[in-house]
User: Fold this.
Amino acid sequence: MKRTSTRLADGREIFYYDTGDGAARAFPDTRPLDASVTAGSSEVRRDPLLGDRVVIASHRQARTYHPPADACPLCPSTEGRASEIPAPDYEVAVFENRFPSLAGDTGRCEVICFTPDHLTSFAELDEERAALVLAAWSDRTAELSAREGVQQVYCFENRGTEIGVTLAHPHGQIYAFPFITPRTTRMLATVAAHRERTGGNLFEEVVAAERAEGTRVVLETEHWTAFVPYAARWPYEVHLYPRHRVPDLPALGDGARAEFPRVYLELLRRFDRLFDRPEPTPYISAWHQAPAGEGRADFALHLELFTIRRTADKLKYLAGTESGMEAYMNDVRPEDAAARLREVASA
Assistant:
């Protein structure tokens, strides 16, 4: 992998990731942009009752919203139209978000573009490109985790207007949080209590139990296990774990790293075959990684992939019980979801 770094017209960093050494990527950004001034515009507040952190980022009201394809800011720049990516072509590109939720002392937000092709999706990438995305995720996780003040790095993709995506180009995001997120905090507490009570690792025991029981397992390979969790919150939800527990993406072994593209692309393609619809299935794909400091020893890197679509013509909305009380009600039995995901496997 080759990484080329340069800066955009307003001072933000951009990184190009290539599988080979031949590509020239350090093209200047010719746009007349003012220097980025978002560093002091985000604020992290603590909920006094729950203890959770909430990010206030009112400047994001002005971010780009559903631009036409010929004005996409994530496509390569062309003669007469400069975008967020100055190069006329790229394989994978990562840059600081122009409208970040987190910036300066409150962290950092990056955008990762999986392909220059506006009309494709991650599921349609080949294995070589998926491996390059994994390398970029790992590289950014390692670099951001080492920054002063960063406590957790979160790589994720939102896909589909139903999810709330405002840019159609295939892309994801990378957040460097100045705090440990509420969901991870709860995981760490549960895992620590289990270690204190039993001496075992709860992540390892959950994966082992799913493999032994079998009915919710969707896919198993030499280095990865994918299953629908016993208490799934979403209609179709898959958790993907490496067989050898590691804390984060940079720690993945060579075998798991080499096998990941085939496994992940297969899961995404199964999601697209779940429903008899012409458009791709909307989803959120979320990497859960250990914090940069505390809690690393017992944490298990894993990916959680889920869709809000419950049938071909129905969506799962977070209603009063979920949004108001965080008490989830799932319309699809996890065992039935797993059976369906096995049914739509590639031939």
